[in-house]
Amino acid sequence: QVQFVESGGGLVQPGGSLRLSCAASGSIVRILAMGWYRQSPGKQREMVARISSGGTTTNYADSVKGRFTISRDNVKNTLVLQMNSLKPEDTAVYYCNTQDSRYSWGQGTQVTVSS
Q: Under 8 Å CB-to-CB from 65, ≥6 apart: which residues?
């Protein structure tokens, strides 16, 4: 069973930046496409960024395109989300999982964008 531990969230002002990290147990994730997801109160969880197993292909939700960057380190089994130009609407709990979210969700990391 693969487990995910997300970190790096916090309170930031609009226009600020945060760098989220996800540590995955289990080397199986090295061969799987991965994604960052977020969920805000009253809304469904949504994928905001996706990266292929080799890290060569990335995709983003329109709402974060040009502001967020996803990357991965398959040696360390980590996934990173660099978030720039943050907006209040980016406030949510952020999670990582495989592209098809086949494993249990971690606890996530809270991101709050507010002045």
A: none
